[in-house]
Amino acid sequence: MNMHIHRCKQIILLLLVTGFALTACKPRQQMVHVAPTVEDKANNELFGDIITRGFPYHTFAAKLNMNLTTGTRSLSSKANIRIVKDNALQISVQPLFGVEMFRFYINPDTALLLDRMNKRYVIESIASLKEIYPVGFDFYTMQSVFTNALFVAGKEKPEVSDYRKFNYTRTSDQNYYITSKDAASGIDYSFTVNGDDRITFTHLMQPQKKHSLQWGYHNFAISDDLVFPHKMNVTLSSSSRKIDAELLFSDIVTDEPIGLSMNIPTGYTRTTMDEILKIFSASK
């Protein structure tokens, strides 16, 4: 009996040592030290440098730890995000054992949300969603905020000549602050940019409908020679609802083949976005 206990202890000790060894061998992220002050630049030069500093990829995949809070309710989950640049973006929410509970898919024309727990789905054109939720429901905007990129309203990608559409100031902590307004939607949007010409905060606001999207970027680190913010804090709010989210990225992979498609399983019932959002609403 004692010999059996001793052998069990040896096995447990071996597993612990192996676990520590594997952890020690795992490559660590190299944190980026940001330049303490910004340089004096002409507006067009600054705008061009922000574009140049953008995260380069053709395809993007990563694991996510998501923490969502709305009212008194909090939810935590693991997820996967995959992007085929300028084509489609998909987030698969997998709370337990890698089993997908929700899938969000968006391309330049259409958004699809699958609720696998209740076998229902929402599918809407981007044009119709922008009428109801004007802040953030645009494929190119969402692609940009998830990859820490600069964007210009109504365009697929920014060009240096777009610098004329923005106003430029400095913040009290010596960051750049650039702002613009989309005349078509009435959305005010702004970017805070650090001394490395990287975006640290994006804010979209539609004052008339009281819709706001705030997206903060933290923990910039080098992974495979690419700099990416491994932590993002998001606040989406309207006159009736507020959702806070923390997104922690890991296992980032770029430029490997990814196929994304918009498939609705047989037997699923169509519903509305408001019905899905009730899952995240705080109970009264």
Radius of gyration: 22 Å
- Give me the strand/helix succession: HEHEEEEEEHHEEEEEEEEH
What distance lies between the first and last C-alpha atoms, to the nearest angstrom? Answer: 57 Å
- Low-confidence sequence ranges: 1-27
| Portion in helices | 10-25%
Q: What is the strand content? A: 35-45%
The CATH class is: Mainly Beta
> Count the strands?
15
Structural domain count: 1
Please name the CATH topology.
outer membrane lipoprotein receptor (LolB), chain A
Secondary-structure class: alpha+beta
Which features would summarize this protein structure in a list?
284 residues; alpha+beta; outer membrane lipoprotein receptor (LolB), chain A; 15-stranded mixed β-sheet; 15 strands; disordered N terminus
Summarize the model shown.
The protein is built from five helices and 15 strands. It is of the alpha+beta class and 284 residues long.
Verbal overview:
The chain is α+β, with helices and mostly antiparallel strands and about 280 residues long. It is built from five helices and 15 strands. It has a 15-stranded mixed β-sheet that branches.
